[in-house]
Design brief:
Aminopeptidase, alpha+beta
Length: about 160
């Protein structure tokens, strides 16, 4: 797969939104065993964030099927007051992994950041997601902070 036609999700592309919601649900179920209402919750999140001016979703299709997407949001660092682009979610369908699609979506995030004249792109990754961490580090991402949490049993 040499040519990747990256598209921007438009507000009236309901079928694409549904495909992205389903891919996110599928990914979350595989990785985290979330609650049963995940699909509806994700649909609500996609609709909510996509209605915001500070959010953009890029996606790639093959044969009219979404095979990967990145969900970006423009945010502000509360310490420095500078804008940054946060990659909220990046997903590539399993059968299309190891074909550099993730890298293409990352490059699109960097290009988008440059268009906005923002020189800071960030993301979060779960500590146990070694495959994603390896990809992110190979692209040039570096750990700059740690996020920690209490399990609900500890609260």
């Amino acid at each position: 797969m040499n040519e990747h036609n990256i598209k921007v999700l438009k507000s009236d592309e309901y079928t694409i939104k549904q495909s992205i919601s389903e891919l996110m649900t599928q990914s979350l179920i595989q990785e985290y065993s979330p609650p049963d209402n995940t699909n509806e919750t994700i649909k609500e999140l996609v609709n909510y964030y996509h209605s915001r001016e500070d959010t953009v979703i890029f996606y790639i299709e093959v044969n009219s099927q979404v095979i990967g997407f990145s969900w970006l949001i423009k945010s502000i660092d509360i310490v420095t007051g500078k804008d940054f682009i946060c990659i909220l979610y990046l997903f590539v369908s399993e059968e299309f992994r190891s074909q550099k699609i993730g890298r293409v979506l990352f490059q699109k995030a960097v290009d988008y950041s440059k268009e906005l004249k923002i020189d800071d792109v960030r993301l979060s990754v779960r500590a146990e997601n070694t495959g994603a961490k390896k990809l992110y580090e190979s692209i040039g991402f570096k750990v700059y902070k740690y996020e920690m949490k209490l399990d609900e049993d500890d609260i």
